[in-house]
Specification:
It is a single chain. The protein is of the alpha/beta class. The chain folds into two domains: 138 residues, NAD(P)-binding Rossmann-like Domain (Rossmann fold, 3-Layer(aba) Sandwich), CATH 3.40.50; 181 residues, 2-Layer Sandwich (Dihydrodipicolinate Reductase, domain 2), CATH 3.30.360. It is built from ten helices and 15 strands. A nine-stranded mixed beta sheet has the order 14-13-12-11-7-10-9-8-15. A six-stranded parallel beta sheet has the order 3-2-1-4-5-6, with helices on both faces. Helix 4 runs parallel beside helix 5 and helix 5 packs antiparallel against helix 10. It binds nicotinamide-adenine-dinucleotide. The site of nicotinamide-adenine-dinucleotide has 23 residues, from helix 4.
Length: 340
């Protein structure tokens, strides 16, 4: 059996998931882990295979271990440097989200990826979520009617990051879901954001995206919210969909819109019935850990057994959205065009 030799850069909170999951994929071998914080080694030494080496310098690790691929799970401000070096040394890359907020940096990474015939996976893990995949099929089936709007809430208490804004950290997921579900890209964006508790970056943001087909999407992201919400509401002409990622078994609910705008005569109970009306369907979807699905697609793509579900262009598109968000926020939330 062919195996790919993987280096993992960054063994913090999220990197630990990769250590656990690489061990579950027979075609993957974790040859080394890299972290600049030597204390990290104390936490992970019993969780990594005895054969996996630890380094504090990724350049030395690549030179000594000669991996086929690297997973980059370090803070945002280190992604570009590590990815560029890895691609120049002919390593396939899976880089955590957001890969970079700079369109120029992503274009540079794309150039080397193509030149060296490599795979570059941005960590857009929701593309692998079976609930989101179900919704995409459902939207394309025609049963849903016309899309009206998408409304995302990705809020909770912390973690307040010191290397990225709440938009860069959390809304990346929502942008990737939107671009995956819709067959079009936003033509204009407006964002207002606030920093109440974090010093350097915003911890709360409201973003509205406008699409050529008149669909719009609103996103509320916050690190200082009392309740953890990971929710998407999609409103259409015939139905409504709720995707709730915090629910274990009923992540997707489909609401049929039987409602009539002709309000009935009668009491408040009848009025409430008229507003809701239709059936609720909870589709039977089997969920697998999305990070494992993404990692497996990366490994199998490098081995030539599968085609990638994510591409560096996905990160490029999101960097353009970041650019428009930033420009809008700097102008007090002014509607800002996005050029594609
Ligand atoms: N997909 C998701 O849902 C999800 C969830 C959480 C985090 N993430 C992403 O994962 C990445 C890491 O996040 P985290 O929460 O694990 O952060 P973290 O701060 O817990 O861990 C980052 C680790 O990288 C190490 N590091 C810093 N610079 C380095 C370098 N130059 N070389 C090697 N190691 C270095 C740090 O010492 C630290 O141990 C971020 O990009 C984040 O956005 C994704």
């Amino acid at each position: 059996m062919q195996r790919i030799r993987i280096a993992l850069a960054g063994c913090g909170n999220w990197g630990m998931n990769y250590i656990r999951l690489i061990a579950q994929i027979p075609e993957a071998e974790l040859v080394c882990v890299v972290d600049t914080n030597l204390e990290v080694y104390k936490n992970i030494q019993y969780k990594i295979p005895a054969t996996t080496k630890f380094y504090s310098d990724y350049k030395l690790a690549f030179e000594k271990e000669k991996p086929d691929a690297v997973i980059v799970s370090t803070p945002l401000n280190t992604h570009f440097e590590i990815c560029k070096y890895a691609l120049e040394h002919r390593l396939h890359v899976l880089c955590e989200k957001p890969v970079s907020t700079s369109e120029g940096e992503i274009l540079e990474l794309k150039k080397i990826t193509i030149l060296n015939k490599l795979y570059f996976f941005p960590g857009h893990v929701f593309i692998y979520n079976q609930g989101i995949q179900f919704i995409k099929e459902f939207l394309n089936s025609g049963k849903f009617g016309n899309n009206y709007y998408f409304n995302f809430q990705r809020t909770g208490l912390g973690t307040i990051r010191s290397d990225a804004s709440v938009t860069e950290d959390l809304a990346t997921h929502d942008f990737s879901i939107l671009l995956y579900l819709l067959n079009e890209k936003p033509e204009a964006i407006s964002m207002t954001h606030f920093n109440y508790e974090s010093k350097k970056f915003s911890d709360t943001a409201y973003i509205t995206l406008f699409f050529p087909s008149k669909i719009h999407a609103t996103i509320h992201v916050s690190w200082i919210h009392p309740i953890k919400e990971r929710k998407l509401n999609i409103i259409g002409s015939k139905m409504m969909i709720v995707f709730d990622d915090t629910s274990l078994s009923e992540k997707v609910k489909i609401f049929k819109r039987d409602r009539s705008y002709n309000l009935p005569e009668g009491d408040f109970g009848e009025f409430q019935m008229a507003v809701r009306g239709g059936d609720i369907l909870v589709p039977d979807i089997q969920y697998t850990e999305t990070l494992k699905l993404q990692l497996n697609n990366f490994v199998q793509s490098v081995l030539g057994n599968e085609t990638p579900k994510v591409h560096i262009d996905d990160a490029l598109h999101i960097s353009k959205i970041f650019g428009a968000c930033k420009e809008s926020a700097e102008n007090g939330g002014r509607l800002t065009g996005v050029t594609w």
